[in-house]
Structure formats: structure tokens, C-alpha cells
Specification:
10 helices; 2 domains; Beta Polymerase, domain 2; single chain; Methane Monooxygenase Hydroxylase, Chain G, domain 1; elongated; seven-stranded mixed beta sheet; alpha+beta
């Protein structure tokens, strides 16, 4: 996976288009798809020769063009799109830096047309792979009639959106490019609910396992759950500001209809953040419960060992006395002395066990 290295101190900010062309490409699959759609028609195609594709204009009936780039290893593709759509150097640099905080930035505007007015949005797509949570950076450029999306790795995170676009008469088909961006963000947020449901079930399982003495390594599972929740929080907390900015600030690329739906998206983000905070508290309680359970089990073990040791103290004393090498020891030559010694030991041990039970020490 390509990851842009940090610049030297004092270097010029951003990444100019000619600099992109000089960056080395890496091996790896890159998929480029284009969807042109309007209320009446839609065209979906995979792009093999990007330069030839960009030389042709979109169909006249197309209201919105959505170009998705899945994979960032081919710098030739990044350069061609950045040049064609006049992407800002600072935004291009953020696309290739794969550790960006979710944010929204405005470039151009002021009625200068589709080639200049841009909203740049950074978000993250979260998904479970096995029992581990993975985060993928997604960069979105919104123009008046064009949407560009850049995924960190190849994969189909937008399949539900494509299915909705194929449905004639759908709300997506009848709205502008900003509504498509809202739908993409909404799809990312909605993916968090099944993940949180899985984490909730996992927390309940861990709560049960803590009480079982056979589960000695449950603390590592608790810490993994805490790390996954922290990853979600780090990616979702800034989204509250992103959605709020899109909803609050007036930008020529965002329609009034989209702003209405962004209010609902904002509510979803707040709801997810609240659930994450609750689950983080639960995992902290699980850690404390686990430590308390371990401590209680240790106390039980120590109590048993202490009682065994206490019972053997008088027995050890008796055995020590009768084991001394004295010539004249009472009862030493008596036949009944040995069984009498064991009888005394058993009586002493029995009396101590009964006493412990009456005092509820065991």
C-alpha cells in the first residue's frame, strides 16, 4: 500500500500535480469505476484506460458523475484525476497521507464553476475482519455535478449505494451530487451499528467468562475490545464536527435538501458516540470485575492454604516432641503409645476444623 512519506521541515505544503507524476507507483490492484446517472438513466462502467475516458465528456442526460478509485498505489491515476478536476495540492496530499483525522475543507467557489468549487471530506470506513476492527481512510471530493472518492484499498464498501442508484425513481437518482455524498457518509455511519451490536454481544460473553475459573486469558480479550472501541471513537468523534459543518455552513455545492438529511445523519453520529462511551465504561467495569474475580480466587486459595497450615501447626508440635532423641520419654516403651499419638493428632485436627466451620472461616 502506498503511503506518502513525511516532508522535510520547511518544504512547501501540499502536493503539486507535477510532483504526483514523479512519485513512485507500487504494485497492487487499483479499480476505477464511473457511474453517470440522472432521474431517467444510469451508466456504470469499469475504467481500464483512464486517460482515454477523461478525454470524453459525460453524457448530456447525466446529472451526476461519480468516479471511485479503490486503491492508491498507482500515481498515474491520481495524477490524471487531480489534473482533470483541478484538485487542490493540499487535498491531494491528504488523500495520500493515510492517517488523516476526519475533516471537511472548502476549496474554490465563489461562482467560478465546477472545476473550482470543491468540498473535500475525509472519513473512515470501519469493518470487522474476523474479531478485529479495521479502519480504512476514504477521501471525497464534492463538486457541483461531480463526486470523486478515493479508497485506501480495493474493496466494495459502496455496494448498497450502487444498488440504490440502479433503482429508477429512488431518492438518490432524483437528487444532486451533494445528496450522493450524504448517502456515502450515511452508509459509513450505518455500518457502525452492526459493529457496535457485535461488541455488545462480545462484552456480555466476556462478563460470563470472567466468572469461570477456566478462562485465564480473558483479560487479553477485554483489552482487545477496549482497543477496538478506542479506534471507533477516534474515527467517529471528529465526524460529529464534519457533519455539523456540512449542515451549518452554506456552500454552493451542498443543496438545501441535503442539509435537511444531514440533520438526521448528525443524530446518528451522536447516537453512535453515546453507545461507544457506554461500551467503554462497560469494558472498564469488566476489567475491574476480572481483577476482583482473580483477587477473590487468590484469597480463597490463600484461605485454604492458611487453614491447612494452621491445622498442621499443633500436629507438627506433637510430632516434634515425640521425635526428639531422648532416652527417657514418657510412654515411649508403651504398646499403645503410637496409636494414641495418632488419635490425639486426629482429635486436634477435627476440633480445629469444627471450630473453623462454626466461625465461618471455611
Amino acid at each position: 500500500m502506498f503511503k506518502l512519506s513525511k516532508k522535510n521541515p520547511g518544504a512547501a505544503p501540499g502536493l503539486e500535480h507535477d510532483e504526483i507524476e514523479r512519485l513512485p507507483s507500487e504494485t497492487g490492484q487499483v479499480n476505477v469505476t464511473c457511474i453517470d446517472y440522472g432521474p431517467a438513466e444510469i451508466a456504470i462502467r469499469d475504467i481500464d484506460h483512464l486517460e482515454d475516458f477523461l478525454d470524453h465528456h459525460r453524457p448530456e442526460w447525466a446529472v451526476v458523475r461519480w468516479i471511485n478509485v479503490a486503491g492508491l498505489s498507482n500515481m498515474r491515476i491520481i495524477h490524471a484525476l487531480a489534473t482533470k478536476y483541478d484538485l487542490h495540492p493540499l487535498a491531494v496530499e491528504d488523500v495520500l497521507h493515510l492517517s488523516q483525522r476526519p475533516k471537511v475543507e472548502s476549496y474554490g467557489g465563489g461562482g467560478e464553476g465546477d472545476m473550482q468549487a470543491r468540498l473535500f471530506i475525509v472519513t473512515h470506513a470501519l469493518q470487522l475482519q474476523g474479531e478485529r476492527l479495521h479502519s480504512e481512510q476514504v477521501s471525497i471530493f464534492l463538486g457541483h455535478r461531480t463526486v470523486l472518492t478515493f479508497q485506501e484499498t480495493p474493496g466494495d464498501v459502496w455496494d448498497p449505494i450502487r444498488q440504490r442508484l440502479k433503482t429508477k425513481g429512488s431518492r438518490l437518482r432524483n437528487n444532486d451530487a451533494s445528496f450522493l455524498v450524504y448517502s456515502l457518509l450515511d452508509a459509513n455511519i450505518d455500518r457502525c451499528f452492526p459493529i457496535l451490536e457485535h461488541f455488545g454481544d462480545r462484552a456480555e460473553e466476556l462478563d460470563i467468562l470472567i466468572l469461570e475459573e477456566s478462562q485465564r486469558n480473558v483479560i487479553s480479550d477485554i483489552h482487545q475490545l477496549k482497543r477496538d472501541l478506542l479506534l471507533m471513537r477516534r474515527n467517529l468523534w471528529p465526524m460529529r464536527e464534519v457533519v455539523s459543518t456540512l449542515q451549518r455552513e452554506s456552500h454552493e455545492c451542498v443543496s438545501d435538501t441535503t442539509r435537511v438529511y444531514l440533520r438526521d445523519l448528525y443524530d446518528h453520529v451522536i447516537q453512535i458516540i453515546d453507545i461507544i462511551e457506554i461500551y467503554r465504561e462497560i469494558t472498564s467495569d469488566l476489567t475491574e470485575t476480572h481483577m476482583s474475580a482473580v483477587s477473590n480466587r487468590m484469597n480463597e486459595i490463600m484461605k485454604v492454604l492458611t487453614m491447612i497450615g494452621t491445622i498442621f501447626i499443633p500436629l507438627t508440635f506433637l510430632a516434634g516432641v515425640y521425635g526428639m532423641n531422648f532416652r527417657h520419654l514418657p510412654e515411649l516403651d508403651q504398646v499403645w503409645a503410637y496409636p494414641a499419638f495418632w488419635a490425639v493428632c486426629l482429635i486436634v485436627a477435627g476440633v480445629m476444623v469444627v471450630w473453623f466451620r462454626r466461625r465461618r472461616w471455611m
